[in-house]
Amino acid sequence: MSIFNNKMSVVADSPVHSSSSDDFIAFLDAELDASSPNLSPDDEAENQDDLESVRIKRRKFESIEETKGSTSEGIIERNLEASTEVDACTHPGSFGNMCIRCGQKLDGEAGVTFGYIHKGLRLHDEEISRLRNTDMKSLLCRKKLYLVLDLDHTLLNSTHLADLSSEESYLLNQTDSLGDVSKGSLFKLEHMHMMTKLRPFVRPFLKEASEMFEMYIYTMGDRPYALEMAKLLDPQGKYFNAKVISRDDGTQQRQKGLDVVLGQESAVLILDDTEHAWMKHKDNLILMERYHFFASSCRQFGFNCKSLAELKSDEDESDGALAKILKVLKQVHCIFFDKHQEDLVDRDVRQVLSSVRSEVLSGCVIVFSRIFHGALPSLQKMAEQMGATCLTEINSSVTHVVGTDAGTEKSRWAVKENKFLVHPRWIEAANYFWQKQPEENFIIKKKQ
Ligand SMILES: [Mg+2]
Ligand SMILES: [Zn+2]
Predict the structure, then answer these.
(1) Residue 367 is part of which domain span?
(2) I need a labelling partner for 363 at 20 to 30 A (CA). Which of 41, 117, 329, 448 fits?
């Protein structure tokens, strides 16, 4: 009878939905289902029953909260609540302007929309933080954190069929079957006029990451695209289930935000190739090296080189970006749950991430030589975040001179003093792979 039944059945039929976020989604569905305002006046009696069951549920929840909460604030709140009408609804969220619990018509734009969980669903701030707290506790018990994954250039690369270059047209005969997508990595999506290549190692990556993280997809693509890609990456729906966020779900233009993720910021890691999409959450971000399989993608980013597809090549399966980042994730996860640390709830994954990062170039003392000064501040910041010391003048403690020209005074000094002389990409590569890279791969030559 409920307008939410469709959604209910999706959750119920899903073979695996043991995660707490999914449990929450199921709970929410049940809640929505039970308390959904009935639009038909004939069903008043039934509606009353629904409301009663919601009240019981609510009391049950409050009593759980009470046993947990001992702050004076909580006590004041409860007293206030007790002194007002017993059944006064706090309106935890709304659906089509009606409270999801009591059905009262609400106006105003308080809270955040969670359209990806259910179209038209809006949750109010207190409810969001209550859900985050509850979810967090159960998550930590299961030794899990949250992982938010970007799609394009992070997990896969897509192109319009019309944008395939002539050298790439051979791919049209090499696409994998959409029947069992788990066996393939190159797919033609005829109805979307697109071709998608999954990044090498993505399947083992998702499998292993799912043991440490509750995973979300978060893309700037639109919803139909996001769902289509989720089907390719997770055909059985065991990793993401409903946790697929698209640009239609964001609260800010051209920005991604953790406000639509039901996880606490102190427990969320983000993998994305676009840093500026996450202005407010840079400390949660692991920046990915972009995966460009198709020529259209290279062109879009201004690269005047052949695409991997044109070269009939690809990223390394066992030593590519995803394999390397999986190691970082394991390390961060391991440190976060180290049992010798202080109380679990006080830990912050952002601190763990920054301390792991600060080991990458520790011990390196860097001087930059004639770097285009637009690029200098970000390179310097990058190096310092990885634990390097940056100096403006050479002295005997310097270990690396970073530049693009071997003929400068500092470069010649480096050669004479047997210091490393490397290209700035040495820093960028360390930043992508969270590991100091062999200097000999980044040697610079004298300009003619
Ligand atoms: Mg991207
Ligand atoms: Zn209400």
Answers:
(1) 359-442
(2) 329
DSSP conformational letter for 78:
H
156-160 and 98-99 beta bridge pairing:
unpaired
Asked which of 283, 305, 336 is the last residue of a domain, the reply is 336
Mean pLDDT score of the chain, rounded to an integer? 84
Q: What's the whole-model pTM score? A: 0.80
Residue 393, classified by CB atoms within 10 Å of its CB into exposed (0-12), middle (13-18) or buried (19+), is exposed
From ligand 1's centre to the CA of 426, what distance in Å? Answer: 23
Give the Å distance between the CA of 54 and the centre of ligand 1. 41
User: What residue type is 176 in one-letter code?
Assistant: D
**Long-range contacts: 53-60, Cβ < 8 Å, 24+?**
54/101, 54/102, 55/87, 57/31, 58/101
Asked whether residue 420 is assigned to any structural domain, the reply reads yes
pLDDT given at position 340 = 72
Of the ligands numbered here, which is closest to the C-alpha atom of 158? Answer: 1
pLDDT at 31: 54
Q: List Cα–Cα distances, 165 to 62, 152, 170, in angstroms.
A: 61, 19, 10
Give residue 380 CA to ligand 2 midpoint distance, Å.
Answer: 52
DSSP per residue, 316-384: -TTTSHHHHHHHHHHHHHHHHT-TTSS-GGG--HHHHHHHHHTTTTTT-EEEEES--TTTHHHHHHHHH
Which ligand is nearest the CA of 92, by number? 2
Cβ–Cβ < 8 Å for 202, 322: yes
For residue 148, give the CATH number of its domain: 3.40.50.1000
Residues 154, 254, single domain; the answer is yes
CA of 91 to the centre of ligand 2 (A): 3
**Which pLDDT tens digit goes with each residue over 320-353?**
999 999 999 999 999 999 877 667 778 999 999 9
Q: Annotate 121-176 with DSSP letters as a single string.
A: EEE-HHHHHHHHHHHHHHHHHTT-EEEEE--BTTTEEEEEGGG--GGGGGGGGSPP
| Nearest ligand (C-alpha, residue 51) | 2
Per-residue pLDDT, 359: 97
